[in-house]
Structure prediction request, 688 residues.
Amino acid sequence: MMEVKVINKRALVLVSDDSESRRLGSQELLQALRTEIDRCGLANEVDLNTIVDVGAKNLLPLVIIYPEAVVYGPVHPADAGRIVKEHLSQGRVIEEMIVPKHQLTGRIAWLAARSGALPAAQRIVLERAGRIDPESIEDYIIYDGYQALTKALTQMTPAQVIEELTISGLQGRGGAGFPTGKKWEIVASTSGSKKYVICNADESEPGTYKDRVILESDPHSIVEAMALAAYAIGADEGFIYIRGEYQLAQQRFQKAIEQAQALGLLGEHILGTDFSFHLHIHSGAGAYVCGEETALIESIEGKRGEPRSRPPYPTTHGLWGCPTLVNNVETLANVPPILRRSGEWYKKFGTPSSPGTKVYTIFGNVNLTGVFEVPMGITLREAISIYAKGMKNGAAFKLAQTGGSSGSLIPASLQDTPLDFAATRKAGVSLGSGALLIADENTCVVDLVKVLLNFFRFESCGKCTPCRIGTQRSYEILTRITQGQAELDALDELLKLADQMVRLSNCGLGQTAAVPIRDMLKHFRTEVEAHIQLGVCPTGVCPMRVEAPAAEEMQPLASA
Amino acid sequence: MTTIKSLADLDQLRQAALQNKQRQAETGDAWMTVDLSTPALASGASRTLKTILDYVAARKLEHVHVQQTANIGYDSLEPIVRVVIGGNPEVTYGKVTEAVAERILTEHLLGGKVVEEYRIEQLLAQLG
Prediction:
């Protein structure tokens, strides 16, 4: 048998190491912890690292242990043995050493506020993923499938369904984080004889594929959730807009619809009640902008996928002018478990401001790429260290981009910020759809943003000028920077463009296309200036000279 | 198939399906579950599936059942195959190429010996 060295990091220990902590003995503590970890033979299982800027001056030095996110403090070198033996070795949290939550401040307080058992152990959305045959309705029913729908239709009024969702505090998982219960309530309270439910599965954000995973591994959960949504808001027809590239997801969803109809869980008089619901699949045709809800609605109507002016919002004037509920796949996947158990149960997971779990897709310069579901509020450092099994080739972490191309760039200095809607907003970044692109020190930020803008100028639908021209011009400026042809005032030009794109674009595409530019100049300005003033790319990625004839590079979209 | 009218109907269906599963487990047969999601197919799961089906058909292994499931999250370790023999605990394999699939069939399913180096735990450990 092959001899394998077992290096499976399962825990991460952070020791505060600012000047105040050092004065109080954090260096000795670090040394003691390292010795103890080695002595117990845990060196291959535990990652030991330092953290600065933790606040809480009277509690230093602090020790934070993931994945439980337990905060101990003040910890003396003499306590190291006990922490390693009891917590890391035996897995017992040492209650009397835990810092009382009210004494913590800032991001560490957010961290301690998160609840839920061991992150990876608790799956809600992906509970059945990989455990059932996605093309078998019996498998779905064995794992509590269609119980929420049956319960709602036989025992609950539509208002009660919405109330349960409001209690749960579920927020839209498509990126914006709008409270789902509130959205349902608005559509339910809008008068109209015909209403629609739409599931947005046009997941075109590069790197995000959580919706595909849900649709491929558990299509019935979305069928059930859409029927529940229709019941709650009073709709009798629904569309799921699946992007054209997701052939497998479309096939499986079609099969799921047919199976549900055969059992009387879709169609006329569901469960013998007056409630009827018909579900259709609409295949996208590969336009990024159709992930925007009004462009998606236009596309279903058979028009060009161009966003509408808002207001009026789809909640009042949506598909064919009727009140329409548009929800993301992951949002809907959370609905059946909430109604099967209760809103109070759901609130136990995640952070107080963003309850529940989140599905992340992680990729880039990490050892393990893939999908994982954890309670809201994990930190980037934790995601990389524990779920992605560390950086590839031991390189240093430089930046992450959350939520696909339109997401924020998160520099290494923010990697201890808990990822939930409120905390990330406070730190000036957005959580987005849950894609985590991890880049190491060999990535040039200008090159990265150039690639992103190339994508946006291609995908801009061209309806409004700021987006159509703004993405193109930003791309050109960035190209000049990578060729060593730009002057310093090009950066002011970029910021001006970014500002105009945010303020004047018609929809989210143009507005968020500017986000990476702004973040680049906010967090990595020195690196960009090095390109311009020193004429070098610090990572050696950019050519720093004009490679192809410049005229060819600058040609408009048609030839790109 | 009859239609469902109430929670009781649903529960009845569920119990029947559960009993069916139970009966299958008691026979001592073997189940091979192949992950057939997009990342798996991209890494060659369809070839793995074909190898398994061919192997089972060629040797007329009637006690081996092949099923499909989808993504468990370890995309870079696809194709993933799970093996359950009778009431034994489930073994998950990663990076199951055609050659590995043959080894699993020969050594684990017929020989009763787990192919340790392709267990998902081992593959995860090697990632560091």
Q: What stands out?
A: DSSP finds 22 helices and 13 strands in chain A.
